[in-house]
């Protein structure tokens, strides 16, 4: 069979009109002032609000970064001011004290294996659910949705008991297996929606060429649903990387196996150096920030595509 | 052929996953080292990496391993060290030794079978004559000399009141106050000079300790211990007098503005930066004060909290205790094949050089008899060692309030706000009963 051509990929939304017509609410006729307001007049207000929103989002990030370069006194007495002396050594102190190198490796390993397992299980499941449109498929989809109803905290004690019974308590391997289990409901539901956008004609054409389920999944469904795969990867990567409660309780705090999120609190004491602590926090955020930055455009495309297809 | 099915973003994610797998799989199959057997000892320690005592602890571990060949598998205990250890015991991965403070849940470990009594080991290991009897009593059940010994005390603390003498002079305060009337008058002078008086973390444990220090001004130790343990704040007139004294001081502006919302960290920052003239803080902060780089240690005098007329205490008060950090031996650690390793490690900590290292690095109050003055290089610690003649020591609440501690802090946050004495005592009674 031939590889899927670009023409068969996701239908792109039409380019936005250069001058979009303002929406016309039904009440516009009785509100002359609203009718007079042109898009150009609304522009500065919308722009201002956008900048304000961006500022609100950026403020905590700025606070985190400048705090990483300050002393405790500066953090508490002038929280938003620039550092008087830029304490770059806070980063090396955090790295060395909390043994962040090993912890970041552990986090990367657990997240990577968990992502591979999540996708390995969710993709075939989503493929099957997307191709079947019968009562059983709907029942299974509903069953996956039930997964959202279980609060993680409620699952903590049974999960600890399970890890003990499996003889995987205080190991990274249990997290590698457990995290995908928690991530499957959202992953399967998202991927199913993306895979339902595959044109039936393309599937029939590939089937006529002799493609079986495996080839259909690998060569047709996954490429077309790639924005969805990237979205799921990013969303779950963030969730896996930031997971704390189960990592602390089940994986534990031993320096050779603990994750970055568990290593960070070792910097807390009766007299915590918050500059060092925030420097450590910045270091643990960097890998996911880089991964997200590289993939964010693809994820936005996916979300936009999903929105226009309905 | 590139159909953009593998764009840059996807390749980046793939590279990340593959790299992580490649880097990590070499170590795959490993597990945490708790419950490791053989020639090793498993320790969970409250002195995590960020603690000022972590360096001295690490030195003891390294010297121990070099001397005995026994590897120390040390795991950091975080804020939830009690839960960590209990979960590990339930999972059959109990450590041999826990280095922890005596508080809340750890007070129940002996009854729960997590740890074993150490009375026998104290004599057998030759520590009875070395560790101060007062320190041992604090680690006995009920805090009494005839109680079962729950663990071996190591890190003691003094908890004086810090006075910034430069700021006092600037505000026209000629000497450190010794009575509450003087304190109220001095607070007025400080405020007039634009200086915050007594800063305290009303939202956490620092506020809790200062409250109890004031509240027991008119009560003897035995009665206070009983009230802290069983309740009866409203029904005990002398305790009510102490609570009323607290509200009088609060309403007179003795505490810094917005104390109800402050925490220990904001308290330290405010004092070190010269915004507030007085704070109550423990010896663990001496090292950090010097490290703050503000020179605060050069113009700080350590003394006691002023007492009111008619107080049970003749001199200003400061806390002192040995419930800081000590050694608790688990059932696993007490097994015949493991107890000797535990003995060797614990006795290594009590060697004079080791204790001295902790005194120097972490400003601990030494648990053993002996002269550690030469190790007290920190100026604040040096002052602290001579506090005995200047202060009286009231009851440290930790052991007595036990697991009600967090509930009590919630009540006392209101006390640093606007709560009346009646509301405070009712809240404390309710919090004590749980």
From TrEMBL, chain A:
It holds the Pfam family BPD_transp_1. It is found in: Cell membrane. Keywords: Cell membrane, Membrane, Transmembrane, Transmembrane helix, Transport. It comes from Actinacidiphila acididurans. Belongs to the binding-protein-dependent transport system permease family. It is a multi-pass membrane protein. Residues 1-41 are annotated as: Disordered. CDD domains: TM_PBP2. Residues 1-10 have a biased composition (Low complexity). Residues 104-295 form the ABC transmembrane type-1 domain. This is Carbohydrate ABC transporter permease. The chain crosses the membrane at residues 45-65, 108-130, 142-164, 176-195, 216-241, 274-292. Residues 11-25 have a biased composition (Pro residues). Its main location: membrane.
Automatic annotation (TrEMBL), chain B:
SUPFAM superfamilies: Periplasmic binding protein-like II (SSF53850). Pfam families: SBP_bac_1. Residues 1-34 form the signal peptide. Keywords: Signal. InterPro entries: Bact_solute-bd_prot1, SBP. This is Extracellular solute-binding protein. It comes from Actinacidiphila acididurans.
């Amino acid at each position: 069979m031939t590889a899927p051509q670009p023409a068969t990929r996701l239908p792109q939304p039409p380019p936005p009109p250069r001058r979009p017509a303002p929406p016309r609410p039904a009440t516009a006729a009785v509100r002359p002032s609203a009718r007079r307001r042109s898009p150009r007049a609304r522009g500065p207000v919308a722009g201002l609000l956008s900048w304000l929103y961006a500022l609100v989002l950026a403020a905590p990030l700025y606070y985190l970064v400048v705090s990483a370069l300050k002393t405790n006194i500066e953090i508490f007495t002038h929280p938003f001011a620039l550092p008087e002396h830029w304490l770059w050594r806070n980063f090396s102190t955090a790295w060395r004290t909390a043994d962040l190198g090993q912890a970041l490796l552990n986090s990367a390993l657990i997240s990577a294996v968990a992502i591979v397992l999540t996708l390995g299980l969710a993709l075939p499941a989503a493929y099957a659910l997307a191709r079947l449109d019968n009562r059983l498929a709907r029942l299974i989809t509903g069953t996956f949705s039930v997964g959202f109803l279980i609060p993680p905290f409620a699952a903590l004690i049974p999960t600890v008991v399970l890890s003990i019974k499996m003889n995987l308590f205080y190991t990274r391997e249990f997290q590698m297996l457990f995290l995908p289990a928690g991530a499957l409901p959202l992953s399967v539901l998202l991927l199913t929606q993306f895979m339902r956008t595959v044109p039936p004609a393309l599937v029939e054409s590939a089937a006529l060429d002799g493609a079986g389920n495996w080839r259909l999944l690998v060569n047709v469904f996954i490429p077309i649903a790639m924005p969805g795969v990237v979205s799921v990867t990013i969303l779950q990567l963030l969730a896996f990387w930031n997971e704390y409660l189960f990592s602390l309780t089940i994986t534990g705090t031993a320096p050779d196996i603990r994750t970055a999120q568990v290593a960070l609190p070792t910097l807390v004491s009766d007299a915590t150096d918050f500059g060092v602590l925030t420097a450590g926090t910045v270091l643990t955020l960097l890998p996911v920030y880089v991964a997200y930055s590289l993939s964010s455009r693809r994820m936005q495309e996916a979300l936009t595509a999903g929105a226009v297809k309905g | 052929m590139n159909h953009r099915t593998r764009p840059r973003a996807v390749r980046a994610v793939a590279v990340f996953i593959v790299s992580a797998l490649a880097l990590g799989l070499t170590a795959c199959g490993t597990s945490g080292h708790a419950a490791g057997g053989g020639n090793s000892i498993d320790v969970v320690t409250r002195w995590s990496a960020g603690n000022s005592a972590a360096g001295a602890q690490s030195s003891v571990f390294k010297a121990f391993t070099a001397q005995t060949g026994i590897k120390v598998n040390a795991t950091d205990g975080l804020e939830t060290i009690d839960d960590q250890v209990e979960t590990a015991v339930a999972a059959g991965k109990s450590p041999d030794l826990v280095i922890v403070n005596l508080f809340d849940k750890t007070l129940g470990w002996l009854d729960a079978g997590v740890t074993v009594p150490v009375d026998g080991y104290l004599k057998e290991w030759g520590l009875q004559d070395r560790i101060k009897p007062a320190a041992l009593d604090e680690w006995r059940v009920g805090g009494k000399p005839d109680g079962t010994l729950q663990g071996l005390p190591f890190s003691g603390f003094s908890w004086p009141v810090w006075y910034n003498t430069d700021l006092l002079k600037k505000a026209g305060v000629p000497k450190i106050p010794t009575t509450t009337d003087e304190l109220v008058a001095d607070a007025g002078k400080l405020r007039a000079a634009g200086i915050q008086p007594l800063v305290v973390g009303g939202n956490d444990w620092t506020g809790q300790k200062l409250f109890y220090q004031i509240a027991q001004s008119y009560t003897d130790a035995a009665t206070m211990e009983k009230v802290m343990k069983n309740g009866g704040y409203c029904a005990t007139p002398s305790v009510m007098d102490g609570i009323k004294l607290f509200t009088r001081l609060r309403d007179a502006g003795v505490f810094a503005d917005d104390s109800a919302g402050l925490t220990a960290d904001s308290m330290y920052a405010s004092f070190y930066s010269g915004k507030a003239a007085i704070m109550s803080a423990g010896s663990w902060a001496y090292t950090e004060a010097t490290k703050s780089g503000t020179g605060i240690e050069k113009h700080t005098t350590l003394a006691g909290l002023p007492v009111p007329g008619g107080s049970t205490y003749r001199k200003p008060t400061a806390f002192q205790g040995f419930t800081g950090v000590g050694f608790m031996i688990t059932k696993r650690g007490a097994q015949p094949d493991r107890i000797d390793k535990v003995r060797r490690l614990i006795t290594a900590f009590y060697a004079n050089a080791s204790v001295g290292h902790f005194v120097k690095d972490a400003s601990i109050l030494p648990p053993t008899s002996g002269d550690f003055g030469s190790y007290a290089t920190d100026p604040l610690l040096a002052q602290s060692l001579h506090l005995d003649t200047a202060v009286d020591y009231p009851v440290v609440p930790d052991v007595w309030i036990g697991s009600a501690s967090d509930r009590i802090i919630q009540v006392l946050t209101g006390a640093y706000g606007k709560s009346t004495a009646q509301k405070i005592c009712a809240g404390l009674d309710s919090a004590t009963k749980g």
